[in-house]
Design a protein that fits this description.
The radius of gyration is 24 Å and the shape is elongated. It has a four-stranded antiparallel sheet. A hairpin with a 5-residue loop joins β2 (28-32) and β3 (38-46). It has two domains: 5-85, Integrase, DNA-binding domain (Double Stranded RNA Binding Domain, 2-Layer Sandwich), CATH 3.30.160.390; 103-156. α4 runs antiparallel to α5. It contains six helices and four strands. It is of the alpha+beta class.
Length: 157
Amino acid sequence: MKLTKHLIDSQPAAASDIYLWDESPRGFGVRVRPSGAKTFVFSYRVGSGRAARKARYTIGRFGSITLDQARKEAQLLTGQVAGGADPAALRIAKREALERQERTVALVADEFIERYARPKNRSWREYERILAHYVKPRLGRYPIHAVGRRDVVRLLE
């Protein structure tokens, strides 16, 4: 069937997830949740043949993006899958790379104080003072994964 805005709007919520599949591109559809939330999805197989693992990629919520935008995104995803890529794995890898860049030494030092030092040590204030006075000014702005042994040795010297 051809998905339309009217068809999606008129679909009521049910006891379990309902999927409405569009005729083109193949694998593009809308998931209707029991809560009434409607989400555009793209279903595909990772690899080749019938034995390939099935995967599902969430494109976005109905209302925040239009049906035409979601259909265009599904066509791009179809091209990626045809080229041998796994869109969901690419999305996860991109998110993890972004998180790695955002986790600075200063952020990790603050997490250390809050999660470990403060609950388990009476001298947590001394840990906090050392980190604030020596570590954060020199290494605080660097991504945690970019700091190596050489940087720590220089700091200790």
